[in-house]
Design brief:
Low-confidence stretches: 169-184, 211-228
Strand content: 5-15%
Strand order of the largest sheet: 1-5-4-3-2
Structural class: alpha+beta
Number of strands: 5
Oligomer: single chain
Helix content: 55-70%
Mean pLDDT: 79
Distance between the termini: 58 Å
Shape: globular
Number of helices: 11
Length: about 325
């Protein structure tokens, strides 16, 4: 059990790549096969990170997917007997290991304190409170395990990119980056379709809580309309259902309509913050919220623009 836990959190896998090129060219080829910022990979999966002669740190970045427990490759270039070698290890980042170790350590200390208090204090600790630290400890382990399972293919993917950049002609890094999302694209659209369909269905079903059928539109159970759109809620909900079908079928009109949804998502909350009956947040709060909302909308817009390649434009 202890060995499994140690491997889960602290184990790293050594790796070494012999380049077919000189040091300067090897660095340049790997730099071209990867990207420097996660924002440059909003449209497709990419290897992202720092590449220099003195240090390499790469991760696999999947658009709109965050995972603190995925493996990173950390290494450096060396020259041995005239051969350029990239040597390093795959594993969790040090800061992640420190954070999880602190989390689990504090949970273990609290668990011990709770147990001592339960059995020795004249006022015993309630059972549920006594076992909460154990739940935190188990949640921490489960979080790491699930994160690593979701990233189980990242090492092989990064290996392919690095090998291709450093001379393996059978698995060129350019081909890897170009085809990385070939199978993942439709799955991404299906997830978007399901989310939109669920949102539209929930908005429509919100009209029929207990008491609605008996009292009609004036019933006390009727769902409150969105302040920004009022009676347009039904039309928007129906539009989301139609749009979800179009995205599932990869229709070009659905791609264009996606930008309309992003725009509505940006304007709606701003309109909802507008003071009503003399009550509303300060103008400074509204401006700050608007700037943040605009930034989020731009990021989602860039990501949605990159999904254009998955739609069936040849059919129009």
């Amino acid at each position: 059990m202890f060995h499994w836990f140690w491997r889960l959190l602290y184990e790293s896998t050594p790796a070494e790549f012999r380049s077919a090129f000189g040091l300067a060219e090897s660095v340049e080829r790997l730099r071209k096969a990867t990207r420097r910022s996660v924002f440059s990979s909003l449209g497709e999966t990419a290897a992202v990170g720092k590449v220099s002669e003195h240090g390499v740190r790469l991760q696999r970045v999947i658009p709109m997917v965050g995972n603190s427990f995925k493996p990173f490759f950390v290494g450096r270039f060396e020259v041995r007997d005239g051969v350029t070698v990239l040597t390093g290890r795959f594993g969790l980042l040090t800061i992640v290991k420190v954070f999880v170790t602190f989390w689990l350590g504090m949970a273990f200390v609290f668990a011990g304190g709770m147990l001592l208090g339960k059995f020795s204090s004249p006022n015993p600790v309630p059972p549920f409170l006594a076992f909460q630290p154990f739940l935190m400890f188990g949640f921490g382990i489960a979080l790491v395990a699930v994160g690593k399972w979701l990233a189980r293919n990242d090492v092989a993917w990064l290996l392919n990119v690095i090998q291709g950049a450093l001379g393996d002609q059978k698995s060129g890094a350019a081909d890897v980056l170009a085809n990385a999302d070939t199978g993942a694209g439709p799955r991404t659209l299906k997830v978007v379709s399901i989310v939109l369909a669920a949102s539209g269905a929930m908005a429509l079903l919100g009209h029929f809580p207990p008491g609605y059928l008996a009292d009609g539109n004036r019933g006390t159970g009727r769902a409150l309309p969105m302040p920004a759109f009022g009676d347009w809620n039904d039309a928007i909900a129906a539009g989301l259902l139609v749009l979800s079908v179009g995205i599932w079928l990869r229709r070009p009109w659905a791609w264009w309509a996606g930008f309309l949804v992003i725009a509505i998502s940006f304007v709606g909350p701003l309109a909802a913050m507008h003071p009503q009956v003399g009550i509303g947040p300060p103008i400074a709060i509204q401006v700050i919220f608007g700037v943040l909302a605009l930034g989020v909308s731009v990021i989602w817009g860039l990501w949605w623009y990159a999904q254009r390649k998955h739609f069936m434009w040849a059919n129009i």
